[in-house]
Amino acid sequence: MSGSKKKSDSEKGSSSLADQMKNSMRFEEDDPRVLRLGSPVSTLRSRMSSSNTRSTSGSSASVSGRNVSSSTSSGSRKIKIVPAGNICPSGNVITGMRCKPERTVLNDNEMIPGMYGYGSIMPGGAMPKTHRASPESSGVASSSKNNPEELNTQANEIYKKGNFAEALSLYDKAIAISPGDGRFHCNRAAALMGLKQIIEAVKECEESIRLSPTYVRAHQRLGSLLLCLGQVENAREHLFSLGQKPDQATLQKLQAVAEHISKCTDARRLEDWTTMLKEAEAATTSGADASPQLFACQAEAHLKLHQLKDAELWIYKARMYEPSATACQSKIFGMLSEAYVYFVQAQIDSTLGKFDDACTAIERAARIDLQSAEVTGKLKNMRLVGKARTLGNEHFNSKKYAQACTAYGEGLLLDSSNSVLYYNRANCWFKLGEWENSLADSNHALLIRPHYTKALFRKAASNIKLEKWADAVRDYEILRQELPNNEEVAENLSHARVELKKSHREGDGKVELVSDLEKFRAAIASGASVVHFNELSNPECMWMSSFMDTLSAKYRSVIFLKVDVKQSPAIATAEKITVVPTFKLYKNGSRMVDTVTPTPGFLELLIKNTFINPI
């Protein structure tokens, strides 16, 4: 065919294309592809015709950047092709395929009946078979869905933007396709690091090295992770593996953590718990900020310093980490790190009186590290303490209080930090009428476990028996805050207050000297009080002190106290005393009046107007 003839045919095809597309939009009202509800609009595509015979002539045109070929013959049958979701001239909407296709395998020039609008228009009316979803809708190019290299590349780009969760998802897909590629596991570890999932990241690095033993990046990454976990020697092994050397910042961090752990070890051996706590904290802040054994180290130091709440907090943090294969082989203080965590947990449980939990924890530590003499020694010790406790309880329940004291004492010889055994023995002493011993053991229990309510209750009762009214008032006031509805506490507090007032009235007319802040607060907590803040070396204070003795004998319903501000700076600071002599009048713990260097007459007038005949 000549060039001029081709040009004429092309122009003819172009002029008739619009009419063909318009005609293709006409449908009968009963056409099954017509939807009489509003619908979305999709891109309009041209009608195409196909023929069972070979085309004798044809023309080509360009529509929206796509090539469309049409062929005609005298015996051809026209097929109307329109994209799904388009609006017809009548206002109805074409729905496209309404049922399952009859066939899914096509020849080049065939189409699935009823399926329109999917993919590009191809020469001869054929359609591509794979372009069902656009790359934009899936977030990953369809060509890379089954290509682990491209998935890994895309994940790397997303990782650089800080989208660690999304990157992790893509690394997972790459690993699912190619699980034996160590690079993908190493990259997955990086995403896990970004998500602060340190233990999982360690496991991925270990898997990467198992698959690719000479993969330098995996060794370096694992070394950095192990340093965060406080495993200095394991970290060093990987950071310097295969002839490599870490960067200067990592090297300095490694050296700092190693130095602090060494000092921490020395302090523990010397039972210098304050230094041990300080060095453990320093190791954590220097780079080992995800180290369960260093968290347990801080917990043990807090426990030995009788800071039980802090000990519970740090052991909880330590128990949050599940050890990896590498972590199971690391050591601290001569025992496996995992065993040490349970070793400390057992001590804390024992202090809290959770004997069964303590035994479970120390038995688990022994299963992990049977070679540790410290672990096996603690296991044996706890079993003996448990037997002593059981025997003591049996004697106590049988009202054999002396034998119970002996049994609890044997347990305390084995474990002097057991607050429950001290409390149990205090109960025995109380039953035997040994008030001083009961008070002493109650104080021991509270020293180990400051918020031990039962021990405080026993201490308060012992103080009442010993007629230490100020101490009893202080103890019962604390108990009243903790047990506001307890009738026994309320009755004993009221009794102690009455006896405290009575003891002042029955005095020899002298003013009581108070030097302890807690006792001072207990003394002014109830009733009317006059406090003289003075210095013994001050002549004016000495003169007013003699007058205070006179007032004390005269006004028996008022408590008169004196405080030497040099001997008791805590009281002076709490009451903001800057000048002496200063007098303050209190009622039920609340300050009513204060005055500086008053005359004797003025001071007595204040007492009358405030307490005796209030205006």
From TrEMBL:
Q: Which keywords does this chain's UniProt record carry?
A: TPR repeat
Location of the region described as Disordered in the Swiss-Prot/TrEMBL record: 1-77, 126-149
Q: Does the keyword Magnesium apply?
A: no
Stored SUPFAM superfamilies: Thioredoxin-like, TPR-like
The taxonomy runs:
Eukaryota, Viridiplantae, Streptophyta, Embryophyta, Tracheophyta
Q: Which GO terms describe its biological process?
A: response to stress
The record's listing under InterPro entries reads: Thioredoxin-like_sf, Thioredoxin_domain, TPR-like_helical_dom_sf, TPR_rpt, TTL1-4
Q: Where are the TPR repeats?
A: 148-181
Q: Which domain of life is it from?
A: Eukaryota
Task: Give start and end of each Thioredoxin domain.
Answer: 518-596
**Keyword flag Ligase:** no
The record's annotation in Gene3D superfamilies points to: Glutaredoxin (3.40.30.10), Tetratricopeptide repeat domain (1.25.40.10)
Compositionally biased region (Low complexity): 39-76, 135-144
Which Pfam families does its entry note? Answer: Thioredoxin
What is the protein's name according to its record? Thioredoxin domain-containing protein
Per the record, its GO cellular-component terms are:
cytoplasm
Record's compositionally biased regions (Basic and acidic residues): 1-12
